[in-house]
Write a structure and sequence with these properties.
By secondary structure, this protein is of the alpha/beta class. It is about 50% helix and about 15% strand. Helix 1 crosses helix 8, helix 3 packs parallel to helix 4 and helix 4 packs parallel to helix 5. It binds NADP nicotinamide-adenine-dinucleotide phosphate.
Length: about 250
């Protein structure tokens, strides 16, 4: 059985990945969708009736969740053609004003879970399979008031590049998707409301439907990084050539 696995599928960008896979990837027989909110995952069955949707309610910050996924894979022995590591969250504000639990949970979800899900999934991936790791423009340079979030996304970018290099000989591609701000549940959950940050109020929004579609297409064709929109491609270039101390002034949130 050829499957796709999408984490963080219950809203926003993750839901768009499920939509695009269900509409455009004919060889995929089943989509395993992972998140905590069971009812949201169940609702995907009705939204996308043309593909078998298999909801798996897991809190990916918990170590047992990787064991559960690993056991399910061992029992079904599917071929994972597409893995989308999308689950993630961020916070906005000074590090010393944030509670310890939130900061460490962010590392657990954005990095630990992404690493563990990749590790258990790779055993079921073959030539032609590919991974999309959802990263962010936050990975290009540090951003004050989003210190932990940016660091977690730098990890995702670095991990994706190295893994892509390693897996090339097996014919498995890894792409890091690096979007700018998208109007999903992410921004309010991070404490970014209209009026709370001039930078976020003015930054152009990325369309999650377009980002998901193009990321999957580029990943299937062997590309390593995809940054939607010319504006954020320019930011990526500038963050490579300018000192990060200066970039941090430009991108102050
Ligand atoms: N929106 C932006 O501005 C933006 C920009 C750049 C990158 N990104 C990245 O894009 C990805 C998707 O975010 P989004 O914008 O679509 O935000 P979102 O709508 O808040 O989606 C986040 C997803 O992660 C899941 N999730 C959160 N905690 C989880 C946990 N402990 N265990 C399992 N699943 C969990 C959520 O589902 P449950 O709550 O049901 O568990 C939800 O499906 C994230 O990695 C984010 O960092 C977002």
């Amino acid at each position: 059985m050829k499957i796709a696995v999408v984490t963080g599928a219950s809203s926003g960008l993750g839901e768009e990945f499920v939509r695009v896979i269900s509409e455009k990837y004919d060889e995929i027989e089943e989509i395993w969708v992972i998140a905590r909110r069971t009812e949201r995952l169940e609702a995907l069955k009705e939204r996308f009736p043309n593909k078998k949707i298999f909801p798996i309610s897991l809190d990916l910050t918990k170590h047992e969740s990787y064991e559960t996924l690993s056991e399910m894979l061992e029992s079904e022995k599917p071929e994972i053609k597409i893995l989308v590591n999308n689950a993630g969250f961020g916070t906005h504000g000074n590090f010393d004003a944030m509670d310890l639990n939130t900061q460490t949970r962010m590392v657990d979800l954005n990095n630990r879970a992404l690493t563990a899900v990749t590790s258990v999934s790779l055993l079921y991936m073959n030539k032609g399979s590919f991974i999309v790791n959802v990263c962010s423009i936050a990975s290009f340079a540090p951003t004050a008031r989003m210190a932990v979030y940016c660091s977690t996304k730098s990890y995702v970018l670095s991990f994706s590049k190295a893994l892509r290099f390693e897996l090339k000989k097996k014919g498995i591609n890894v792409l890091a998707l690096c979007p700018g701000p998208m109007d999903t549940e992410f921004l309010p959950a991070a404490g970014i409301e209209k009026g709370s940050s001039h930078t976020f109020d003015t930054l152009p929004r990325v369309n999650p439907a377009m980002a998901a579609e193009k990321a999957l297409r580029h990943a299937s064709k062997g590309r390593g990084i995809y940054t939607p929109s010319a504006f954020y491609k320019l930011y990526r270039f500038l963050s490579k050539v300018l000192p990060h101390g200066f970039v941090m002034h430009m991108s102050k949130t």
